Amino acid sequence: MSDRLILPVLTLATCSLGLGVFLPVVEVSNLAIFSSRFSIAEAAWELVADEQYLLGIVVIVFSAIFPLGKILAALVLWQRFRKTGTAPGRWIGWLEFFGRWSCADVLLVAMAIVVAKTSGIANARMDIGMWFFAASIVLMGIGVYRVKRATTVS
Q: Tens digit of pLDDT for each residue in 54-68?
């Protein structure tokens, strides 16, 4: 089965993921005077710099590495299927493994916003990076679904 949307959708997912990780995802305002904008990459770096290594690594792994791994596994599976006409079950297994963890990154960012808002000290709002990040998750889901469907139907 030929699906011409898979490559463009996964490419857009990759671009959106990059923008979502490096553009500001949240803006925190303190006392309506001071304002800070943070990206996922900056937040992870700050955690590591503050010697909170485990939390910093968790943010990096679940926000960048797992989603990128899912996209790359889908691309490899799709390219291999296009060349050979077969899809190894191992790669489909990898897609499912990465898929189980793809919402953990959104949960981490959402929890940070909720904590900032409920503390009463700061007001937090989503920034452009969060929209790209969310778009990458949706596009990734569409792309992976289409890869699975195309490789298992034939």
A: 888 888 888 888 888
| 1, part of any domain | no
* Residue 56: CATH number of its domain: 1.20.140
How many structural domains are present in the chain?
1
Beta pairing partners, 35? 29
Asked if 136 and 35 count as a contact pair (C-beta separation under 8 A), the reply is no
CA–CA separation, 21 vs 63, rounded Å?
7
**Could you tell me which of 95, 108, 109 has the C-alpha nearest to residue 141?**
95
Q: Where are the alpha helices (DSSP H) in 23-127?
A: 40-49, 53-60, 66-84, 89-100, 104-118
Of 78, 48, 74, nearest to 61 (Cα)?
A: 48
